[in-house]
Structure formats: structure tokens, C-alpha cells
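ugh finaly. both done.
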Amino acid sequence: MNGELGGPLIILGGGGHAAVVAESAARAGWRVVGTAAADGGTIGDPDGAGAGEIERAAQSGAALHAAVGSAEVRERWTRRFAGARFATVVDPSALVSDTARVGAGAFIGAGAIVQARASVGAGAIVNTRAIVEHDCAVHEFAHLSPASVLCGSVTIERGAQIGAGAVVIPGRTVGAGAVVGAGAVVVRDIPAGATAVGVPAIPRPPTR
């Protein structure tokens, strides 16, 4: 899943999540050769002047990893640099089943668990100590915050975010772009674009 370990890697993003990904990548054997961000890093803005340098590095064999919390930004950068190889970064302390599938550009953080027959889509985040139980499907660019728990056969659709410490009970679906608040307990399906908070989590419809 980690691809060419020991190969050069450019981190797209300059915030706290990018720092976490860079450290996990280094522990997993990648060589972080640059960071690209609008407000810092060794390379300029991926959406601006830094794009050319990023493309040249990718053509020379460097992999990229979009390391920012926003699903919209991760997806935009993945499309912007579609010709590049996006690295899947799995912290060595994570437990990932041999029967699980993890897509290109996904991040599996320290102490996270991805169990049997689960799938984690391209560009998704399974953050520190998050748990993805058997037969779950975490779709592209979704984000599981630290210590969140997906019980068996849960579906998290594209770009949805599960807050820190939240729990989704077995068989439930969280729709595309939905947000589940920290500490919430999801006992019913959450519609696309909704925000759900509380115990049990009560979905509010999107405001736009």
C-alpha cells in the first residue's frame, strides 16, 4: 500500500495535518523532500506559483500527498496534479488488515485500525487512533477524525467528515459531504450535506 517506500515525497499542505503526515511518512520510509503551501513550506502555493515546481518534481519521480483537512482542497489538488503519483501514507503503528483496500493518496494515521474487508478510498483520511471495522466503506476524500469509530458495515460517502470521538453504529450510512460532530453517536443514516450532532446524532439539513 505504501508504494515505493524510501522514494521522494512532496507534502501538499503546510498546516498541522501536513506536519503529522510528514512524520508518519518519514517513519514509514518515505523521504520528504519538500512541502508546498500558500503560506510557507519549501515550495510555493500548489494553486499558484508552486505548481510548476511540483509538476517538475513529479515528472522526476517524486510522489505527492495532499495533506490538508479540507476534502474540497484535497480533491482539487488531486485533479490539478492528475499526472502525478499520489502516495498512500500508512503510519507503521497502524493496523491494516491484509484483506482491506486502501486507495491512492489516502492517509492512515498513528494507531489507526482498518479491519477485514474494509475499504478506504483515494484521498481519504483515517486519522490518529480512528477505527474502521470490518466491511466498512470509507469513500474518496472522506475524513475520519482522531478516535472516531465506525462499527461494522458502515458507509461514509465521498467527502464526509466524522468528528473526533464520534461513533457510527453498524450498517449506517453518512451521506456525501455530511459532517458528524465530535462525540456524536450516529444511530440513523445521515443525509448528504447534513450536519449531525449529539447523542443520538440529530441531522440538520444543509444550509445552502
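ok and the 2nd:
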Amino acid sequence: MTPLDPVTFSFTTALLLGLSFGSGPCNIACLPYLGPVFLATGGGVRHAWRTVVPFSLGRMSGYALLGMLAGWAGFLIREWLDTSWVRWVLGSATILVAIAILWRNNRTRNCAASHSSGSVEVSFDQQGGEAPVMSSGLFFMGMGMALNPCAPLTTIIFAAAATASAMAGLSLGVGFGMGAVFVPSLIFGFGVAHFSTQIREHLDKWSGTLEKVSVGMLVLMGVATIAGWIAP
């Protein structure tokens, strides 16, 4: 019986493998994509969930989908993922998030200007403007990250294929996803969010420039991902 036998490679094993992966290289891979989002949006730890939750749900959905497809197909689907469409998912989602941030910041400034001129200010969040766009972009950004197999995820896909069962593969994908997003969610939800808020407070005079630079970084990351210049 090998370590990848479907009987011994369980949900718990996938969860522990995900925790191991999420505690190390995953954070480095996510930082260039999520870091600028926190710098541009601010909000601190209190509102970090607005970024972390949709991104993490996207990653978990991607891992679950890969596990289910591998189990259903009964063979390794790594080759199916080594195509440009995966880069387009992540790159396009990153650019979409940048557009949502621009939309949000421009609307916020317009509302502030109206308020200072005596007009009645209406909360942008209440109008439901950029929130769905931002959440969708973050979700597909997370899914795009998940669709770029690393060595631990390739192991999960291989194990899922060995089960020849969509449900067993789904279980392995969900287990790996839960483990993989746990530590990064804590790091970004508390550490990066707090650090980004401190930067914005110390550079308050240049907040507009900081937002533009962050948006520019997101657009650059999106274009570079689509073009294949970088591999998450």
C-alpha cells in the first residue's frame, strides 16, 4: 500500500498537507496580489474580512473543483491546467479588482466633495456599487491562485485521481483547501491588514498616490500573469 493509496490518503492527511503549504510558500505567492488591495482599500483588521473571505472562498472552491474533477476523471489533470486560460482567470480577476478599487475611491472622493459643498452624502456601500465587483474579482483571484498547481496540490490531484470517485476527490480538495487558507487568512486578516493601515496613517499626505500606485501594481500583476511573465 503506497502513501497515495485512496484508503490511507484521507481528508485529515489532505488537511494537514494544506496547513503545511499554507504556512509557508502560499503566503509569498498571495502577497503580490493581496498586498496592494489592503494598501489601496485600508479599513484595518476590522474590515479585512471583506477582502480575505471572498479570496479564501475562491481558493477553496478551486481546490475542491480540482479534486472533484480528478476523482471523476480518474486520471491526473495537471496537463489540462497548463494552459493559458488559467492565467487569464487570475490575471483578469486581478485587473477587475483594480478597476473596483478605482471605482470605489473615485466615488468616495465625489461623495466627500458633495458633502463639503453642503449636499447630502449617500454611503457608497448602501448603493451597492463596487462591493459585488470587488467580491467577485477577489473570488476569482483566489480561484485563479488555486488553479496553478504547486507540488502539494499536484499530490492531492494525484490522490484524488487514484480514488476514481468525484466525491472522494472533492473531500480531498476541500480538506486541502481548508488547511491551505487557514494560516494565510490569519496572516492577511490581522498582520497585513494592520501593517497596511499603519502605512496609510504614516503616509496620509500621500494617500491618493499610494492608492494609485497600489492599483497600478494590481494592473501590472494582472497583465504580467496573463502574458505568462510571472507564475504564481
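summary for the 2nd one i guess: Residues 29-116+124-227 form one domain.
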